[in-house]
Structures are given as structure tokens and as C-alpha cells.
Amino acid sequence: MSLLTIAILGVAGYVLGSLPWGYWLSRFFTGKDIREVGSRGTGAANVWRHAGFKLFFAVALLDIGKGSAAAALGLVVGGPSGAVVAGTGALIGHWRPLFLGFRRGGKIVATTVGVALVIAPLASVVMAVLWWMVLLATRYTSVASVTASIALAPLVFAFGGTWAEVIFTACAAAAIVVLHRANIERLWRGTENRFSIRLPRLHRRGPSPVAAATAGTDHTPPAG
Questions:
Q1: Nearest CA to 89 among 74, 106, 99, 102?
Q2: What are the sequence ranges of the domains in the chain?
Q3: What is the pTM for the complete model shown?
């Protein structure tokens, strides 16, 4: 790739990564600025905590999608190296979005999954499954994010990824750990917020009117 191609892919990836879906959707559906609550990040985890699971799911898919779109564009234009360049731009864009005036965005977890989905699809799927398993086991999104991200580079290597892809995912993991340093400090102090994961309840049919009317009535005949 020429330097011009690298620059164009990097900028294009950055613009795609800058789409602040967590901020936009939270603002539209709840009227809240997600940057003023919780961790003050625009990522899906903060959206879940303050706007609910449905909005979290939408934001997560869109953040994954923008990472995949950037990497796919890079792959078409510049091959695997182009995917890494554009994917790197997307991660930077998610962290410091153009559309939020370069102010703080998210912690790049979902966007990293999206990029990995293009350059190392099997490793990306395993990373996503591992994230959910750790979350369900610990109920800490920070622990799930750090654990899954650290596992990503070895997974990419195990599934036959190139050295450029391994180095990219290792650097992404290092960035995710750094961006979660406040969470890690709270975990160390025992003050990190846990998610309360509620499974849907089965609706039990109430007693029939006759049973309700006779409930508690003693039908035993009197003695003697």
C-alpha cells in the first residue's frame, strides 16, 4: 500500500469509528446524555446500566458493525494490512469521536470485536462467547471486557492469523486494559458496580375463583 492509501484508510476508519451510537440512541430514546451518568462513557456497557438491555443490545450491534465496516473497507482496498489500518482508525474514532468534538467516547471493546470479526472471525466469536461467560460468572462487565480482550491475540494466533493481526489485537487488548484502569482500581478496592442480571420469570396461573373462595375453609366435620 502507498502512504496515501494508508492515510485514506486510516481517516475513513476513524470517521466510521467516530459514530457515537451510545450517545445518539440514549439521547433519542431517554433524553439523557450518557456521558453524564455512570462511567460517563458512550459504550454499550454504560448504556445497559442506565438505559436498559434493549438499548445496550442495539448499541453493541452498531458499535460492532462500525468496526466491521471499517475493517471490511480496508480489506477490500488494501488487503489484510488495509483492514488493520482502517480497524485501528475505527478504534481511535470510538475512543475520541469526531462527532463529539474529540471528547471521551467508549472503551473500544465492541468495536474491537467488530474489527476482529473481519480479520479473524473465529477468534472474534470465541472472544464474544468468553465475554458473556465471564459476565454471567462475575457480573462485572469490566472483568469480562479485560479477560476477553487479553484472550483475543492468543486466539488470533491459534486460528492462524498473520503477525500483523496478532500485533493489532494485542495492542487493542493493551488499550482496553488501560481504558479500564479506573475499573481495575475499583475492583481492587471492592467498590466496582456489579450488574444485576434478571432472568425472565415464568407466569404462574392463579387459583380458580372457586379455589380462591374456599381457600382456608376447614371442611372437616366437627368431632363427636
A1: 74
A2: 3-195
A3: 0.84
